[in-house]
Each structure stands twice: as C-alpha cells, then as structure tokens.
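Suppose a colleague, Dr. K., hands you the sequence of a protein chain of 215 amino acids and asks what its three-dimensional shape might be. Before reaching for any lab equipment, you can write down a predicted structure in token form. Begin with the sequence itself:
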Amino acid sequence: MSTTIDVYPGDDVMPLVEETRTRAQELFQGLLDRRGVRSTIEVTAFYDRPGESIRHVGPDARWAVGLDLGFGYWIDGVWNSSSWPSCYEWDDDVLTAEDVEVNPGGVSPDLVGRRWIAEPLSRVVSADRLARILRRDHFWREYRSAAGHAVASTGYGLVAAALAEATGGVVASWDSAFDVEHNGESAEQFLTWWGDQQVDFYGEALFRGTGRVHD
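The predicted structure, expressed as tokens, is then:
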C-alpha cells in the first residue's frame, strides 16, 4: 500500500526547495557509500501539475502551502522512481471534551482545543518542542506509491528527514511507513536507522544502476 511520512516543523522557516533536494541527495549518497553500493544518486525536484510538462524547480523557489512537487531519483544517470512531498495548512480538526470523555485516562484535558497530533506526540516529545510544533500553521507530507521501488521508498524518508532537520521538526507516520515507536523522532534520531533498515529490507542490488524501473 502507499504510505506517507509527515514532518511537523518546530520553526517558522520555509526552506528553499533546492536546500531540501540537495540535502536529501547528500543523505542518500552517504547511505550508499557507507553500505558499499557503488552507485551515484541524483535527486531532482519538479512541479507536479496535471496536464503540464515536467518543469524542474528553480534554485530560488521556497516551500509554501499548496506546493505539490515530485522528487525524482536517478541512479547512475537513469531515472528510477519518484516520491511526492507537499506542504499543507493545518485544518480545524482539534481535540474536544468528548474525545477526553470517550478515552478516559488516554487524553489529557489540557489538550482539549489543540490539534489531534498533540495527544500522541505529547507522549514522546518534550513539552517545549510540542508547544513549538503546535504554534506552526503548516506541515509536510511525503508520499510514496504503493509497491513503489526501493529507491523512492528510501528516498521519501530522506526527504522528510531533510525537512525536519531544516525546520527543527519531527517525523511521524500514521499509515505504517514505520513503527509508531519512531513517531516524534528528530531528523538526527530518524537517520540513525531509516536508511540502513530500508537497504537491509530491500537488498543492496535494488540500489544499483540496472536500468529504468517504473513506480
């Protein structure tokens, strides 16, 4: 199935897309080099607009709410697969007194009126970091297609890590991109295991240049 990784920023900074792209590429190449996979990875960022020709994102473009992009992954100069990061504005889905009543002991009354992520994140992040996250009016969601290739299925986590790193944020997945015990991790924590776990799961051969592979 398709899965997503959310990034909840702790700062208001909107990074340049180019900064996200280059950092994700750096993280991916570092992973391959560390694992002895003799491939060159290139990450590209392009606008995901139905009916339009592919147009790459310029060096001065910043992330903004409503910006839907594709990140392409190229192995040894050959396109392999893509993932789909977007920046969203938070809606008005907040915890209510009724949520507390139907889950006694599981939802603190102090969280009433806060976004729904406050309850699960309150268990794993500091009160200060949670307060900073809840003050932000946007978040990112990185998506990879169902049965996506190993490269995109690794890269989308590295894109999420690059965004979390740049914004003092945390990562989470509510549809099993990874175990819930990792929800609320910083980029630094996430990067200690994500890439190696993916390579171990898929096998190093799928990260070598073997020709074009469709999503």
